[in-house]
Amino acid sequence: MSETGPAPRPPQLADLITAKRDVRALEKLGLYSLEDALRYFPRRYIYPGQPTPIRDLEPESTAVVLAWVVGVSSRHMRNRRGKLTTVTLSDGMGTITATFFNQPWLEAKLLPEQWVALTGKASLYRGQLQLSNPVLLNQAAGEAPDLDEISHPIPIYRASAQISTQRIQRLIRVLLDSAPPEALADPLPADVRLAHGLPDYRQALEYVHRPMGEREPEQALERFKFEEAFALQAELRTRRVRTELEPAVALPGEAGGQLRAFDESLPFELTASQRRAGTEISKDLASTSPMNRLLHGDVGSGKTLVALRAMLQAVDSGKQAALLAPTEVLAGQHFRSLSAMLGPLAEDGSLFANPSGVRLALLTGSTPAKERRKIALDLVAGEIDIVVGTHALLSDSTIFHDLGLVVVDEQHRFGVRQREQLRAKGSGAVPHTLVMTATPIPRTVAMTVFGDLDVSVLRELPGGPRAIASHVVSLADHPHWAARMWEVVGERVAAGQQAFVVASRIETQEALTDPETGEPVPEAVGVADLAERIAALPALRGARIEVLHGRLEQGEKDVIMSRFAHGEFDVLVATTVIEVGVDVPNARTMVIMDADRFGIAQLHQLRGRVGRAGDDAVCFFATNRPEAHESAERLATVAGTLDGFALADYDVEQRREGDVLGRSQWGARTSLRYLSVIRDEPIVLAARTAAHRLVDEDPELDRHRALRAYIDRLLVRDDSDWMETS
C-alpha cells in the first residue's frame, strides 16, 4: 500500500534532545534533524565475541577484555603533541595495561575497581603485552559494561572531541525508539521491498544502529543502496515522462534537401556507428514527441558530423538549429568545422556564394556589438539556419524565428538550467535536443546520470584505430630522459611535423609542501615560462614556438589556432584550451608536462589532439613525481590503452560517486552515500526496472509522497546558473 498525504518536515534535534551540549556536538557533525541522525550510519563495526581471559591473550591477536580498573595515569608524550593515558587492568587471572592517545578525560571517568570492557589488538611493548588504543565498549565511561550488549556487533561512529562514539550510539538509539511513525515513512513501496527481499525502513535502521548479528548491517546496506538507485531512477523516469508529454514539431526532412546533398558530397563512408546513430536521431526528429538523446563516443569518433546531419534534417524541415558549446574556443572550432564540412553547401555571404546554401552564424560573448545585433535580427527573421554559440545564445535578447533542434556539446560543462533555457526558445513547441559528450560513458553511468535520455554510441573511429605511441616519463627518477624526449620532438619538427606542448598552469607555481600531507609538491611550470625554457633547448633551436591560454582575448586565440592549423609555426605551448575540438592534422607529437595534475579523461582528450590524420603519432606524459607516487598507476593506465571506453570504466572506478553524479546533469548536488554506479550495476538494473514500473503508473509520484520527499532530499536543489567559460 502506498503512502498518501504530504510528507512532514523531519523534527529537529534541538527540539528532541534536552542536553544542548549534545545538540551542539551533533550539529558540528552535520546532524540537525531527526532524519540526519537516523541516517548517520557507523563507519565500521566491531565484532567482539566472547571476552578472553588476560592470561590467554597472544601477541598480535584482537580480543575483548573484561576486567576491572587497577589504576589510571596520564602524561604528555615526548615526541609528539598530546597526552598518553595508561590504564592498568586485571581480571583476577592476569594483568595488562591499555594505552589511550589523547583521551585525558578517561583519567577522571575510569575509577579504581570499576569494571570495563575493551577490544583491541594485544601487542608486545618492552617485553610486556599491552592493548594499544583499544575501543572502550562501555555505553558511557563510568558505567558498567552490558555483557549481552557487547556480544553483538558494536557500531563505531565518526565522533569528535565534543562527543564520543558511545554517546552518539546511545542518542541515536533513543531517537530511533521515540521517533514518530511519520518520521519513519518508507520511501520504498511495500511491494517493491517484498519483490526484492529488502527490510523496511524501520527494520533497516535497527539493523544499522542495533544489529544482533554480523549479517544485519550487510542486509541494511543492500537496502539503502537499492533505495538510492530506486530514487534516482524514479526521478529520471519522471523527467522523461514529462518530456514525452510536451508537444514538439516533427522534423521529417526533405527527400532532395541539404542533408542528401551533404551525404552525396562526402568523400568517405560513414562508420557503422555513425549510420546507426544517424538513423536513431532521424527517427526521433520525425516524431511529435521531443527528442532527448545523448550521443557519446571516443575521441575522433565523428560526433560533430552526426550532429551536423541532424541539424541539416532540421533545416530541411524549415526549422533552425542551435549548437551550444561551453567555451568560446570550442564554439569557434565548431563553427569552422561545420563550415569546412559543408564546403560549397554553406552560404558565406560572398557575391558568388550558393544562394540556397545553409546559412551559418557564430554568436559568443566576444562577438562585436554591431555584428551581434545583425545576427540577432537575422535569427528572429529566419535568415540564419544554424547558429553556433556559447552562453550568449541563452540571453533574453537572442530570439529565434523557429528553433527546431538544440545540440548541446560537452554536456558535463552545462547545467540543466542552461539546457532548458535554450529549449524554452522554441516557438510554442519544445525543440528536439541532442546532447554530445566527448568522453565515453560506462553503461551504468549513462543509466544513472543520463537516464532521462535515449543513448547513441559511436564505437568505431573513421579510418580505423589510431596509432599513438604513449610513454610515461618520470623526470624525478630519470631526469636524463628529458633530453631524449625533447630530441624526439625536435626530430619530428625538423621532419616538417608540428607539436603540442601542454602546461598545467598559466603561471608558474613554485615547489611547495602539501599542508595536509607534508609531502613535497614539485614545481609546475606556467605556459609562458615553459615556452621560454623549451625555446632554449638545443633540440628545438630554431623552432617556431607560440603560446596559447585562456586569458588571451578570443580574437587573439582564434588567430593563433588558425595560424597553427595552417602550419605557420611548429610548436604550440598551451593550457587545456586545446583539450576538445582542436583539429590540426599535421600535429603528430604531444608533450603533457606535469601529467600527474590531470585526470584520466583530460589526458585521453588531450592525447586525442594528435595523430588525427591517421599517421603515427607520439605522446609523452611527463611528470616530476617519482614512479612510486600514487599518480603512476593512473598515468600508466592511460599510456597503456587508446580505448576511451576502457579508460572511462577505470576512471569511474577510481572516483567518488559525488564526482560521477555531478551537479551538471542533475541541476542539483547528489548526495549518494552507499551506491556505486559501477560496482553495483545489478542493483541499478533491478532498481531501474522497478522504478519505471512505478512511475509509469504514478508519473508525478502523487501516491508515493515519502518517495517524492526522499528524492528531493537526495537531490539537494541548486538552481544557480553556472558555466565554465575559460
From TrEMBL:
Name recorded for this polypeptide: Probable DNA 3'-5' helicase RecG
Task: List residues of the Helicase C-terminal domain.
Answer: 480-658
Taxonomic superkingdom: Bacteria
Keyword Membrane listed? The answer is no
The record, for Pfam families, names: DEAD, Helicase_C, RecG_dom3_C, RecG_wedge
GO biological-process terms attached to the record: DNA repair
Which organism is the protein's source? Brevibacterium rongguiense
PANTHER family, sorted? ATP-DEPENDENT DNA HELICASE HOMOLOG RECG, CHLOROPLASTIC
Q: What are the UniProt keywords, alphabetically?
A: ATP-binding, DNA damage, DNA repair, DNA-binding, Helicase, Hydrolase, Nucleotide-binding
SMART domains xrefs: DEXDc, HELICc
Q: Which GO terms of the molecular function aspect are on file?
A: ATP binding; DNA binding; DNA helicase activity; hydrolase activity
- The UniProt record lists the Helicase ATP-binding domain at 284-458
